[in-house]
Amino acid sequence: MSKVRGGTLALMSVVALATLLFLLANRPTKEDDKPVPLLQYEAAEAVPAAPDEKLPTKAPIAANSSGSSQRFAKKAADMTAEEKAKLAKDFKEKYKPAVEKWFQAYADRVPFELDDFTLDKFHSCLGDYMYTFMIGDTTFTVQDSPKLGLKISYLMTRKGARDLNNLPGNGFVPDLTVPVAREEIIRMVTADSGVEFKPNEVIIKPTAAACALNGGAFVSILPAGADPGNALNNKISMVFGSNGKLVSYVRDPFF
To answer: Is 201 helix (H, G, I), strand (E, B) or coil?
Structure first.
């Protein structure tokens, strides 16, 4: 029992880390489930872009952040014309193809459509190589690093973040079933990363045993022999909702 509880706590620590980027870009609203950036928006200068793509006509400006955080997370309003032009070019030539490949791996498990991934959804660049897009209520990040490569690194839905960070309420009846099979996980991760993991390297646990997300699944991908209690050993961590859709995806930047 202690091993099971320890494994669940490790998975929850991954979730806690995964929600950091989401919480930086969103805050809850009483009106609906739409994402609300922590930053206020105002009209920005014209943005050079490819003919069929464009950056947002409104870009975030500082509202509740320090100068240091502005330098760490660069928003559209802070980008130079050259940086905007490069982003538009990279989006068309690199990011869109990478997301198309990722979609082929996870197919109908993604909580939004491929056509929803457009340049006007760009939100900010975290550091020098983490490009974040807000797609509906989903935070979606593409990693583009000269040393670490180009890959999808992060996904989190608003409802998923809320459910994963709350305990069940009174009268909660836990559904301990999981909406995804180990064989399917192996197939999807192989198509995503090019690495085929063995069945014993895929850990699946019901979310209802640890949080308010009922009928979902925590999934950890880690090499055989690695300590499952150390979340840093996970190559890919995912959470699926009861409908089988991803609510969270985190990939080791070095994998």
So the answer is: helix
